[in-house]
């Protein structure tokens, strides 16, 4: 499902977490995000992210988790997943705002998506105690990843350092 | 009309492999996690003299024959030769237990015998004794097709198991079905996602460096989804085990299997 460009919808992530458990509500409130069309145009922190930190997060299989499902232009990384589209050139295909929405809550673009919603507490069940009330990535981390993804503009080969 | 129908059919047939279609696994595509392993691990599972899990099974065989106390019979005291009396038993568990009025798995069954026929304390879940004895009993059904009992009293729990299998949960919002029905055979990082069949348990996992139960495996998958695992012995696991058995049948039992 693509959200029409005309639809500008303000979503208070906190408000949509009404069904979340009490423990989840006890966590830090998430920052409000404004969805315009199929994008979140504004930075969640008001600042630009750090692409080097974003890259590290994307490669980190216990924090970003991205390479469990996606492959990308990272020739040095063995065992990349193939459950999801290759991230090579994704910065040329999608705007920063579109990337941000897909990270924050991809269900807004495709309700059936298997990609975890990285910055939303909505519609969660049986979250393990250690993760309750916490988004998968914090707002600043989302911005770091968005800035890094936006820099992935060429086809896979161009971004490789080796042959 | 006929043209469009033919084209639609052709498109269906030409579409990428089964993993691309969401939904249940077609009977002809059912296969054990064994098929996902490299030749070295497959050979190790096939060779009882090289299979580390057989050490637990040997301890289980000893326990089968040993009386828990002077005035209580050994398992073998009531059941005789396991090779004959236990043949096919593991292939039909979980089963309905009239005494407790609920479905129970093989570990529960063994512990019920401990309590009622041996006046002994039940073994702790995941203890070497319970794993060894369960694996020894299940070994007697090795190679036999899973044959879940056709017992209507099991239906509600099996249905609950199916609902749990399909439910999104945890911080990552994944479900068992997303991985094991829709994406089996694909790579989740370094791991090939198996279809998630319960045919080998208890099994020896290299990562565990030991034997582990199906419930331990399910807890691992739940932690992977960042979901709060149920406590060992919870009825939710037995419900999942019931659904998994029906979903896997008639694949053959492999206990003790070996997995990476």
UniProtKB/TrEMBL annotation, chain B:
EC number, as in UniProt: 2.8.5.2
Annotated catalytic residues: 221 (cysteine persulfide intermediate)
Binding site for substrate: 217
Keyword check for rRNA processing: no
Cofactor note (record): Binds 2 heme groups per subunit.
Chief place where the protein resides: periplasm
Domain Cytochrome c: 156-248
Gene3D superfamilies from the UniProt entry: Cytochrome c-like domain (1.10.760.10)
A Pfam entry, by short name: SoxA-TsdA_cyt-c
CC terms in the record's Gene Ontology section: cytochrome complex; periplasmic space
Cofactor entry: heme
Cross-referenced SUPFAM superfamilies: Cytochrome c (SSF46626)
Signal sequence residues: 1-20
Subcellular location: Periplasm
GO-annotated biological processes: sulfur oxidation
InterPro entries the record matches: Cyt_c-like_dom (IPR009056), Cyt_c-like_dom_sf (IPR036909), SoxA (IPR025710)
A GO molecular-function annotation: heme binding
Residues bound to heme c 1: 75, 78-79, 113
Lipid biosynthesis listed as a keyword: no
Keywords linked to the UniProt accession: Electron transport, Heme, Iron, Metal-binding, Periplasm, Signal, Transferase, Transport
Residues reported to bind heme c 2: 176, 179-180, 221
Catalytic function, reaction form: L-cysteinyl-[SoxY protein] + thiosulfate + 2 Fe(III)-[cytochrome c] = S-sulfosulfanyl-L-cysteinyl-[SoxY protein] + 2 Fe(II)-[cytochrome c] + 2 H(+); S-sulfanyl-L-cysteinyl-[SoxY protein] + thiosulfate + 2 Fe(III)-[cytochrome c] = S-(2-sulfodisulfanyl)-L-cysteinyl-[SoxY protein] + 2 Fe(II)-[cytochrome c] + 2 H(+)
Family label: Belongs to the SoxA family.
SUBUNIT field: Heterodimer of SoxA and SoxX.
Protein's name in the database: SoxAX cytochrome complex subunit A
Organism for this UniProt entry: Methylobacterium soli
Annotated gene: soxA
